[in-house]
Amino acid sequence: MRPRLNALLLALPFAFAGAGAASAQDASALTIEQVMADPDWIGPPVETAWWAWDGKQVQYHLKRQGSPIRDTFQQSIAGTAAQRVGDGERDTLDAANPVYDQQRRRMVFVRNGDVFLRDLRSGALAQLTRSNDEETQPQFATDGGVVWRVANQWYRWTPAGGVAQAALVKAEKDPNAKPKPDALREQQLRTLETLARDKAQRDALQAQNDSWRKSDPSRAPAPVYLGDEVQIVESALSPDARWLLVVTQKKGADAGQSGKLPRYVTESGYEEFQEVRTRVGRNAPLPQTLWLVDLASASAREVKFDALPGIADDPLAALRKSAGKEPLKGNRDVQVATSGDNGDGATMRWSADGRNVAVMVRAIDNKDRWIASVDLAGGKLQPRHRLTDPAWINWSFNEFGWLADNRTLWFLSEQSGYSHLYTQHDSGKPVQLTSGQWEVSSPVPAADGGFFFLCNRKTPGAYEICRADDGKVRELTTLGGVEDFTLSPDGSKLLLHRSGSYLPSQLAVIDSKGGDAKTLTDTRTPAFKSRDWIEPELVQVPSQHGAGKVWAKYYGPATLEPGKKYPIAMFVHGAGYLQNVHRRYPAYFREQMFHNLLVQRGYLVLDMDYRGSEGYGRDWRTAIYRNMGHPELDDYLDGLDWLVASKQGDRDHAGIYGGSYGGFMTFMALFREPGKFKAGAALRPVVDWTQYNHEYTSNILNTPELDPEAYRKSSPIEYAAGLQDHLLIAHGMIDDNVFFRDSVVLTQKLIELHKDNWEIAPYPLERHSFTRADSWLDEYKRVLKLFEENLK
């Protein structure tokens, strides 16, 4: 089968035929076995994709059927068939995320941990490194060379000099630093001439070495020592290799007690334990310090955060007082290099000429985010923009950078209530380039001064590529399901990842000025394409709880039978801040097929973007602040009313289910509104928010120490006594996101409450996201059985 499979792969982009031809069975009724089968039967989505250097071909990864291996394909944008890149041809490949010089004549990229330079006029490819190190962050230098990072070291390449070290910073004591004053030492040196002479000679040799190093261009720059009490988190070298910004945090600081995750089914045959994250409030993320390193003098100075407006204000003062805690003294703790849920890419950006640098700083309480430039001569921050929110700053929509003039900063901000694009020239007032009740994401400056970006101007769930220039915004595409895009090396075309309800991510190309998109790939199998799938209807559910309209996906029969009442299944997406009501291929593609199966069995299905979901602006996101599970449940009760009033839904036969945040919401629905939903399936669910992680949970609920009422109000275990309907709990036992412990604790609670209408299904080899088809099948057979036995 493998040789035939590879031959068929070469027939792309027309189809991925790995699952066999369509058969009579394809037209038959769906089965739960088919819905939860290995997704190879659907066909692989196109994964990472990038332009080849000439802009005439694209390269991308596809998963091999029945294997975790990813093959690389190359395809002409003229529409010819894709060709798999052989092992002996991989050294000719380009790579994703290249960096271009200002004239877009050369590009530099990292492939397999090494740095490559491509001349875009001739196509000549130069490999600049060949090592077992992991090179990162390549960029062009002002002298025409290239710089990149390896751990805490920076290197540069020039055509004349080859590869040389550009900067080395160490979290160690300076071995040549002057010792602290000591009376005994001074006494010895004053009274013993030999010791004094030896020291003077050592000092002279060191001074000579320092002088030679500075004056001799063949020497590597001197190491810079930051002391042995810090650890280096991040760094960013200026393109002229003159300055280095370094982020550190205290070494050995108490990060809180970590969890111990037991694993019972192991290859060793013994129980094993994995160390996992700390719980929320069990030590906040460590505060960080910013350093400006002058590489010419091999010296470093701390860049203070005092100049940031509002940094000394305490947005949690009232909660701190009511909890009997000491008031905040001095500045709030901040981070430059954030991670986890609050991480959002690069946080230090140099202009191409190396004369300006912008830094993004976040308060650890995540209620302020600042962008500031650095006065390189004075070593001080110069505030450029402050975004503040009494709830929390979004972990998305924080991109920023410099335009080609090296003086104009661009950035995204939610300050208007929606993510929009701004520019700021020097220290002038920011100029808002986009506006309206829609969101800008993934902005890319155009060579002529405009911007390309993703937008959802027409409806919240329809994503297109937009362009902004001359004060105007227009859509370049009319596809509805654009996921991301990449500008071609010459800037004339855009490579799109686009998808649809039943179309996994595929590639298309358009002119950068707009026009019709040319489809390059369709990797679906004939078996999957032959199915008559239900296209979900995007509807707006009227809110009776002050939310206006709630967008939702409705699945139902093409024609409702007059007088018939239909059982209801309501789905709750996970992640909290995630959008599922859109025209793209859903993250919940299995659940979407399951909804087809439910409709086939006589159900109506509603999948809602409840308050807290992505795509609807800041106020929609923060509606759940200190009150998780309450506005969202109101939205689902409104959805239930809508199905009854508009779609012949049977109020007395309604169920609800979902995973992660959806599992949490299933608990809230069954525990807080008993009788409304006759059955619910809580998959990998949160039971008690005090057990979840810090970066996500503290944003929404603060910390248990400061805001215990928010945790009591938002945690399902506080309402477990309300359970009267049928409940299924399903959870992976090695889940390192929502710990299986949550479900174990709720099990004990339900036992204590003498509840007898629930069951739990543990999965010993699954984490938060299941990876095995047999686990998916077992779980959803149980969900289907739960609904069939209790909703009909």
Evaluate the radius of gyration: 29 Å
Terminal CA distance: 44 Å
Strand order of the largest sheet: 37-38-40-39-41-42-43-44
The helix content, as a percent range, equals 10-25%
Which regions have little confidence, pLDDT < 50, spanning 5+ residues? 1-27
Question: Can you give keywords for this protein?
Answer:
single chain; 8-stranded mixed beta sheet; 5-stranded mixed beta sheet; globular; alpha+beta; 792 residues; 14 helices
Task: Explain what this protein looks like in three dimensions.
The chain is α+β, with helices and mostly antiparallel strands and 792 residues long. Helix content is 18%, strand content 32%. It has 14 helices and 44 strands. An 8-stranded mixed sheet has the order 37-38-40-39-41-42-43-44, sandwiched between helices. A 5-stranded mixed sheet has the order 9-10-11-12-13, with no helix packed on it. It is globular, with a radius of gyration of 29 Å. The model is unreliable at 1-27 (pLDDT under 50).
